Give the backbone structure.
Amino acid sequence: MIPRVLLATTVVGCLLAAGCGGSGEPGNDLLFVSTRDGDYAIYGMDADGGSQGRLTDERGDTSTNAGIEFQVEPAWSPDGMRIAFASAREGSFDIYVMAADGTDTTRLTTSKVNDRRPSWSPDGMRIVFARSVDETQLFVMNADGTGARRVTDDAAPESEPAWSPDGEWIAYVRRQPGTEVREIWLVRPDGSERRRVTRLNSVAYAPAWSPDSERIAFSADRGDNRYAIWTIGIDGTGLRRVTPAGIDAFEPAWTPDGRVLAFSRDGAIVTVDETGNEVQLTDPQNNDSSPAWNPRPDVEKEES
């Protein structure tokens, strides 16, 4: 799994005046995970970093490992009304879902193994996730938690699935057996047509789809012991580095218009646009990670 920053080593202020806010209602443009309250929990903010706030009043018991991992790995439903996430609040990780405002939390899986990294089908009817059995494997279930089935029969460890916006593919990370090499692969939702996308012979994490389903962003270490954000076409061509070398960058997430990528770096959420211009949205002192853009950020505003 993606390395987590356990303690921010650099303390800087937010680069945007609005970005340091923590009072009032949380924004709904961008979700992220933060330990600013002690436990890992899901927060929301505006696209410019303003209106940062926690989505739930309930908190994990930080005296236990399970309580610390209270809410991680958020994923928006396609209609922007629900959020799936993983939580270890009951011991092992399970998949949960809650309303966009943090209410009505429902547990979807109750296995004794770890279920993580949920990602919605574009019609909102199904969720793909990674389940740790003997090795980590990909499963698809109905959005109400029923009908879980394994996606492939591959003996290699598979993790970090991401459903394409057009519904045609699931991107995931496959670890080459007997090595630490992890590459990005694709598979149809029915388990057919598995194929490799990257050939980096290194460690790749966290595939994220462009809105047009033509490219995949991911984090990778290409042998220099530093992780950068890269993008690649689904045919394996057009590999491009997005972030500069020197500082680790993880967990890319594309805006709905495909013009900006958010990612986590040194405990902060950062965005980068098509020209390479970067904006830091959150303070690294808060240990923020796992950004997720709302596919329909105006839904809550329209209905309020």
Remarks:
- Residues 299-303 form the longest helix (5 residues).
- Residues 1-23 have pLDDT under 50 and may be disordered.
- The two ends are 37 Å apart (CA to CA).
